[in-house]
Amino acid sequence: VVGKSTKLLSHLELGDKILDVVGPLGNDIHIKKYEYPVVIIGGGVGIAPCYPQAKELKEAGNKVISILGARNTGLLFWKDKMSSVSDEIIICTDDGSEGMKGVVTVPLTEIIKREKISIVIAIGPLIMMKFVALTTNGSGDLPKVKTFVSLNTIMIDGTGMCGGCRFSTLDGGVQFACVDGPDVDGHIVDFNNLLKRANRFIDQEKESLECYDEECRA
């Protein structure tokens, strides 16, 4: 919960209704049979959208290697579901309470060293996706691996008109997550710029939540 909208969503229970849902928006990852295994990395709540992609890629005949990361074991979920659609699953926690202690790029590096990988898919916090992209961009000792990231920038109208979801690319260009994404080539994203932009509404979100809480208390 970061603002009024997510606070209201957090109160929903099974059977409650949402008036309207707009989607799907933008582009997705092409599901097909790849030559080499596929690595899917889910961080925190990003594990949820990893499941349907892993499921479809597995059904397309791919070897799926899944890496799930969270701050601690209490924040991990859907391990059984991800295991059911994965040939190999690796758990990472920041505090070592389950699986490997450390970040998801550690097992990712080991996997890329041991075998060829067709694509990497990363969904989770921006900082996690940034370092996944840095690991697979071929700038170090590891080979370059095509990497998709799912950008969770703020979206308002979903058509690219408002510009709220825009993100800069490393070549100086601009794209829109709702139209060009949300799944994009992780190696073109200017993550440093995006991380700064991601925090620009923190004060407004806090103010909105405080006003809502005051209304509830009244």
TrEMBL record:
<dbReference type="Pfam" id="PF10418">
    <property type="entry name" value="DHODB_Fe-S_bind"/>
</dbReference>
<protein>
    <recommendedName>
        <fullName>Dihydroorotate dehydrogenase electron transfer subunit iron-sulphur cluster binding domain-containing protein</fullName>
    </recommendedName>
</protein>
<feature type="domain" description="Dihydroorotate dehydrogenase electron transfer subunit iron-sulphur cluster binding">
    <location>
        <begin position="152"/>
        <end position="189"/>
    </location>
</feature>
<dbReference type="GO" id="GO:0051537">
    <property type="term" value="F:2 iron, 2 sulfur cluster binding"/>
</dbReference>
<dbReference type="GO" id="GO:0050660">
    <property type="term" value="F:flavin adenine dinucleotide binding"/>
</dbReference>
<dbReference type="InterPro" id="IPR012165">
    <property type="entry name" value="Cyt_c3_hydrogenase_gsu"/>
</dbReference>
<dbReference type="InterPro" id="IPR039261">
    <property type="entry name" value="FNR_nucleotide-bd"/>
</dbReference>
<dbReference type="InterPro" id="IPR050353">
    <property type="entry name" value="PyrK_electron_transfer"/>
</dbReference>
<dbReference type="InterPro" id="IPR019480">
    <property type="entry name" value="Dihydroorotate_DH_Fe-S-bd"/>
</dbReference>
<dbReference type="GO" id="GO:0006221">
    <property type="term" value="P:pyrimidine nucleotide biosynthetic process"/>
</dbReference>
